[in-house]
Amino acid sequence: MDNENNESEIFRSSSSNDDEPTLDLDLNALQQLASSRLNRHCVHTRRLTKGLYNEIYLLQFEAGPDCIARLSCDLNHPAAKFASEVATMKYIAQNTSIKVPEVYDWDGTVHNPIKIPYILMERLPGQHLYRVWDELTVEKKKCVLSQIVDTLLLKRSDVFTWTL
């Protein structure tokens, strides 16, 4: 099975709200927005999945890497919450070794060309752990669990201690 079909199957099987209505989204407007903000021509857009709070789209470009568009299903999503999520992602990227997607652009309001709060971010490579866990050797599982523990311990470290 090729990667695109495999990816579609993964997201289809993991999405629990496929019977819910999708966002009223103009895909051409999303492509134009991404092209404008990333200074690259977006040639293809497709929805990967949706959940209760967001729809996730894969954006492909003529040149350069793909990117992900995370669109809020709540058009009244508080802009401050979006700002906090973006700031947290940037803080983690700058102050830890945890790999988080780079945020290319975002708008937490409906006052933008697609009229939906969005985040355009880097697409990270990889697979869902639950899909490959049973195939991993004991040594690989230990390595994965060690990385998870390291990440959780890092969250408890001084990196995330703020004082007012």
TrEMBL record:
Q: Name one Pfam family in it.
A: APH
Q: Which domain of life is it from?
A: Eukaryota
Q: Does the keyword ATP-binding apply?
A: no
Domain Aminoglycoside phosphotransferase stretches: 45-140
Per UniProt, the keywords (alphabetical) are: Mitochondrion, Transit peptide
SUPFAM superfamilies, per the entry: Protein kinase-like (PK-like)
Q: Where in the cell is it found?
A: Mitochondrion
Annotated Gene Ontology cellular components are:
mitochondrion
Q: Kindly give the InterPro entries that the UniProt entry links to this protein.
A: Aminoglycoside_PTrfase, Kinase-like_dom_sf, Mito_inheritance_9
- Which family, according to UniProt? Belongs to the AIM9 family.
What is this protein identified as? Altered inheritance of mitochondria protein 9, mitochondrial
- Species of provenance: Rhizophagus irregularis
